[in-house]
Automatic annotation (TrEMBL):
InterPro entries: NAD(P)-bd_dom_sf, SDR_fam. Keywords: Oxidoreductase. Coiled coil: none annotated. This is Putative oxidoreductase. One of its GO terms (cellular component) is membrane. Belongs to the short-chain dehydrogenases/reductases (SDR) family. GO terms for molecular function: oxidoreductase activity.
Amino acid sequence: MSEVSNTRAALVTGASRGIGAAIAERFAADGWDLTISARGREALENKAAELRERGAGRVEVVPADMTDADAITALGTAHADAFGRCDALIINAGMGSKGAVAEMPVKRFDRLYEVNVRAPYILLQSVLPTLRATAESVGAAKVIAVASITGVYPEPELSAYGATKAALISLCETFNLEESENGVSATTIAPGYVNTDMTDWLKDRIPADEMITAADVAVVAHSITQLSRFAVLPNVVLTRPGTNLHRA
C-alpha cells in the first residue's frame, strides 16, 4: 500500500458514462483523488482526462468486468495501493433488463444478480479494510451504492431488476449494523428514471427533460460524504414529480 494521501479519495465503478461519470465529475470538482472503473479502458482514459481538467487530483484508471470476481478484488487492491485511503466507495456499475415474471429467462435474472448484487458484495469485502483504516484515521468513510426506486416500490416488467436492487439495499442496511460503529456506513440512492442511455427505451413515453438528471444523483452522493461518522443515512429515494412519487 502506498503512503497515505492527504487528499480525500474515492473509488467509482461504472464511471465512464451516465450516473457514475456524473458522480466522478462532482467529486473531481471538489479536488478528490479518484480511481475510476468500467469495462472499457479507452472510455475510462478519456473520462480521466476530463476529470483532471475539472479539478481532480490524481486519477487512476482500472478497467474491471463486474462478472469477474478476481478483477473486482484486484480493483479494491489497486485503489488501496494507489492512495492508501478510501473516503468513499461508490458502487454504481450495474445492468438493467426488463421482462414480465412469466417470460423473464432465468439466465438473464442470474446475470442481473451477478452484476447488481454479487459484484458489490465482493467489492465491499475487498475495500472494507481500507475503509476501516480511513475511518480510524480521519473519522469516517462512506459507501454509496446506486440502487433504484424499483427496489423500494414495484414496477411492472422490472421484477428481476427491482429484486436485485432490493437485495442491494438490504445488503447495505446489514452492512451498517456490522460496520457503522467503526465509522464506516453505507447509503443506497434509489432514484426513479434517470436521463441516461439506460433509459433510452422509454423516452418516447417519458421525455428526457422530465427525468431525474445524473447530476441530481451526483449531488446526493457528494453530500453524503459531508456527513460525520455519527450520521448514518440508510437509503435516499429520488422520485419524479406528480403522480410518480411511488413509481419509477
